[in-house]
């Protein structure tokens, strides 16, 4: 049994052969299919750990976001996850995400008690990292279209490295010597 399984599965779920994937909520980067699904999932996981969820609701977050003229597509799920992360920390739980390399959020709730987020580093599921929501990933996804040939380029860059002096296959310079995009290069959000 992995440390992640011990954190996200209850003793009964472990005894019954439960798997991490059975206690994961998957949400597209643009948000829930139906309002309230994320909060309901989080509340159910908190109840499974034997606590009564309080403030595990994202209606106020959604209402505030909808009234925000600066709201962009994809902002609401981040705000909801930020809110739920704070609520869970008061309940002895931690909101975590499985970095599966796609544009979806795979959300887990871990019973962590007094553990610090740094103590939860290095967890994996199916060979991919699982990290505390809000912590920096080990790898950044960088994508752009070459301004000259329009080729879409994508890199997975460890946070300890840069794309210094990177060029497109067509020869166009994309990044300077420090790894910053050159002025004519626009990164995808």
Class from helix and strand fractions? alpha+beta
Order of helices and strands, N to C? HHEHHHEEEEEE
Main sheet? 5 strands, antiparallel
Strand order of the largest sheet: 1-3-2-5-4
Mean pLDDT: 90
Instruction: State the helical fraction.
Output: 10-25%
Number of helices: 5
- Taking the alpha carbons of the first and last residues, their distance comes to 37 Å
Oligomeric state as shown: single chain
Report strand %: 15-25%
Low confidence ranges: none
Number of strand elements: 7
Whole-angstrom Rg: 19 Å
Shape: globular
Fold and architecture overview:
The protein has 189 residues and is an alpha+beta fold. It contains five helices and seven strands; from the N terminus they run H-H-E-H-H-H-E-E-E-E-E-E. The strands form two sheets. Strands 1-3-2-5-4 form a five-stranded antiparallel sheet. A two-stranded antiparallel sheet has the order 6-7. Strand 2 (93-98) and strand 3 (104-111) form a beta hairpin. Helix 4 packs antiparallel against helix 5. The protein is globular, with a radius of gyration of 19 Å. The mean pLDDT is 90.
